[in-house]
């Protein structure tokens, strides 16, 4: 395990520090410039077509189709996979490791990530096709294969990168999308809602950590619940996600606002430290152990990507199942997804930590770990006597956020395996789902952080081929954006660009013409 950790550290450092972070920012910057800062110049339009359309039955109503889900269900399922431990423990880890300045780089990664996610969604819809069940299948593997691979002499390269992406996505689903999330649920839940007769029964000890009967029981319960939903397929995952995610996001934001407004006098200081420590090339805090400038950037960007997944090419796999006919329409939901996940939820977490006094802003000293920091911040207000309501609230938040993340990633892994299996997909995907569900128990009993660390590495290994594909498809993204703006915003008579497949293009164009869909 130690040797594996050493190898992973080397790969992780290269993928993220040397290549990943800079490729991520460069891709987002390039797309932002090429689309004329679309996320800013068209902010009114994308807000109107996303959050402003939540009462439109065309957007939120169930499709009744086996092949697709509603636009809102696609958003909730994507948010289910992105809004998770990364928004709570991930932000805490970024601040503890990289200082408050890491939050600035998280924001910057999100700002440019809006256009990366937008572009991924556009390409996902444009290059999607029907699978053996008659469902839509889309994702980075398809625009790498047919988009990048469609260029002269690039067929082999496109296919190779598509396979690499799919393999890394399938493997990452067991780490970031399964064991890492489940482990955080179990640790936080059993700690917050301790049942002594169960927690006192130690099954075994590893890495100086006790694994108890209580952990085993919670793990089995989670395995059964996830299994019930995952076996029901995307339709069942989407139904669960659209019920849990909006409720939990609203409750978490409201709870965070209570903390922030209670400590309103410290908000200015918090922002001063975020901006003041974002560019320091020396110690981020005045302590003996300084934080290097590269660490501040890496931690901010890495945790930003871990939270919103813009650039990974993962969430596009569920956005591609939307019933939308217009690629750019789903791209707009991609912008909103990153905005909601990082600019809103992660910022709430950061301000809760930095204003509540659980961390010394001058010295960078805290007695809490990244797993308990936010809970202790909530306890500064939501605590009556010895009853720590804040701790309970965060334990439930992590439970619901991480649980839905597991559901979302089960779909991503299924789609990756489906691509790799080809004609054998019906059987192989069932085997994958069974293994995925069984691995939940492993996550519940895990004491080492190696699975979490390897998840970081596979994220980066997914990201690189995906971003290569997105950069290669930049001209197409610009064309699709321009085509949409001409038709939907400027009301010009232009032939719509809806799919790379002439048959799907014709079918969708006919539906849009007959129904007047916008």
Provide a concise account of the structure shown.
The protein is built from 22 helices and six strands. The protein is mostly helical. Strand 5 and strand 6 form a beta hairpin.
Describe the structure.
The chain is 72% helix and 3% strand. With 518 residues, the protein is mainly alpha-helical. The chain has a single domain (2-490), classed as Hydantoin permease (Orthogonal Bundle), CATH 1.10.4160. A two-stranded antiparallel sheet has the order 1-2. A two-stranded antiparallel sheet has the order 3-4. A hairpin with a 2-residue loop joins β3 and β4 (209-212). α8 packs parallel to α20. It is globular, with a radius of gyration of 22 Å. Residues 282-290 have low confidence and may be disordered.
Give the topology, please:
Blueprint lengths: L1 H33 L3 H4 L1 H7 L7 H4 L10 H12 L2 H14 L2 H26 L2 E2 L5 E2 L2 H8 L7 H38 L3 H4 L2 E5 L2 E4 H19 L1 H30 L4 H10 L16 H16 L7 H4 L7 H29 L17 H7 L3 E2 L2 E2 H33 L3 H21 L4 H23 L1 H16 L12 H14 L3
Antiparallel strand pairs: 1-2, 3-4, 5-6
């Amino acid at each position: 395990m130690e040797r594996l950790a050493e190898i992973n550290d080397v790969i992780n450092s290269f993928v993220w520090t040397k290549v990943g972070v800079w490729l991520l920012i460069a891709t987002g910057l390039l797309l932002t410039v090429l689309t004329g800062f679309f996320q800013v110049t068209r902010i009114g339009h994308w807000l109107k077509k996303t959050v402003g359309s939540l009462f439109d039955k065309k957007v939120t109503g169930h499709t009744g189709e086996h092949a697709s889900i509603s636009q809102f269900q696609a958003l909730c399922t994507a948010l289910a996979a992105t809004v998770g431990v990364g928004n709570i423990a991930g932000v805490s880890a970024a601040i503890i490791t990289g200082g408050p300045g890491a939050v600035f780089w998280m924001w910057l990664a999100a700002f440019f990530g809006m256009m990366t996610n937008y572009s991924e969604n556009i390409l996902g819809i444009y290059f999607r096709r029907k699978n053996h069940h008659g469902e839509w299948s889309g994702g980075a593997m398809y625009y790498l294969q047919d988009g990048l691979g469609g260029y002269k002499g690039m067929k082999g390269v496109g296919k190779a990168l598509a396979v690499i992406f799919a393999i890394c996505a399938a493997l990452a689903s067991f780490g970031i999308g399964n064991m890492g999330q489940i482990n955080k649920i179990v640790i936080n839940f059993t700690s917050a809602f301790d049942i002594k007769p169960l927690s006192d029964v130690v099954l075994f000890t590893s890495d100086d950590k006790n694994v108890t009967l209580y952990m085993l029981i919670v793990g089995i319960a989670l395995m059964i619940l996830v299994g019930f939903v995952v076996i029901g397929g995307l339709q069942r995952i989407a139904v669960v996600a659209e019920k849990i995610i909006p409720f939990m996001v609203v409750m978490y934001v409201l709870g965070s606002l209570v903390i922030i407004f209670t400590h309103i006098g410290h908000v200015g200081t918090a922002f001063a430290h975020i901006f003041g420590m974002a560019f320091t090339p020396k110690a981020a805090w005045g302590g003996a152990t300084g934080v290097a400038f590269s660490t501040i950037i890496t931690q901010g960007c890495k945790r930003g990507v871990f939270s919103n997944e813009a650039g990974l090419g993962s969430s596009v796999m569920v956005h591609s199942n939307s019933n939308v006919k217009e690629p750019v329409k789903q791209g707009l939901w991609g912008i909103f997804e990153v905005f909601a996940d990082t600019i809103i939820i992660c910022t709430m977490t950061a301000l809760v930590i930095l204003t509540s006094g659980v961390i010394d802003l001058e010295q960078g000293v805290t007695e809490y770990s990244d797993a308990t920091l936010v809970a202790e911040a909530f306890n500064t207000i939501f605590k009556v006597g010895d009853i720590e309501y804040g701790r309970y609230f965060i334990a439930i938040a992590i439970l619901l956020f991480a649980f839905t993340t597991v559901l979302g990633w089960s779909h991503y892994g299924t789609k990756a395996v489906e691509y790799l299996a080809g004609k054998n997909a019906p059987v192989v995907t069932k085997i994958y789902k069974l293994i995925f569900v069984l691995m939940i128990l492993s996550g519940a009993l895990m004491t080492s952080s190696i699975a979490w660390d390897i998840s970081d590495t596979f994220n980066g290994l997914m990201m690189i081929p995906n971003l290569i594909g997105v950069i290669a498809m930049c001209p197409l993204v610009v064309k699709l954006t321009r085509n949409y703006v001409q038709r939907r915003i400027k009301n010009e008579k232009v032939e719509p660009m809806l799919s790379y497949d002439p048959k799907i293009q014709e079918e969708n164009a006919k539906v849009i013409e007959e129904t007047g869909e916008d």
